Amino acid sequence: SGLLTRLQVSAPTVRALPSARSFSQNVPSCLWRLGRLNHVAIAVPELEKARSLYRDVLGAQVSEAVALPEHGVYTVFVELGNTKLELLHPLGEKSPIASFLQKNKTGGMHHICIEVDDIKAAMTELKKKQMRILSEEPRIGAHGKPVIFLHPKDCHGVLVELEQA
Question: What is the pLDDT of residue 31?
Answer without folding.
Answer: 84
